[in-house]
Design brief:
Elements (H helix, E strand, L loop, with lengths): L2 H4 E4 L3 H10 L1 E6 L5 H12 L3 E9 L3 E4 L3 E4 L3 E8 L9
Antiparallel strand pairs: 1-2, 2-6, 3-6, 4-5
Length: 93
């Protein structure tokens, strides 16, 4: 897998914004098959920053319902919280 397949997107949420300001952490959606080492290398290659720590967790999809009869499910995905070296930033705009 290449870096673009490993890192799918950067998540922009209120909690993620607070983590970025306070702890220099960013949340990304990663490929579920990727491990911490692959995620670290992909972030360093794509954003040209130094990663100090990677935490990952698998997020289970939720049951969804549309109208009355149609039940479905959202997809499972992997969340990675990336801690960067002091002074490094990822430009999200």
């Amino acid at each position: 897998m290449n870096s673009f397949q490993i890192i799918r997107t950067v998540r922009l949420t209120e909690k993620g914004t607070r983590q970025g300001e306070a702890f220099n952490q960013y949340t990304v959606v990663a490929d579920p098959r990727a491990n911490k080492t692959q995620i670290r290398q992909a972030v360093q290659e794509l954003f040209k920053v130094k990663v100090t720590k990677v935490n990952t967790l698998n997020v289970r999809g939720k049951q969804r319902r549309q109208r009355t009869a149609q039940a479905g499910r959202s997809s499972n995905w992997k969340k990675a919280i990336i801690t960067l070296k002091a002074g490094d930033k990822i430009s999200l705009t």
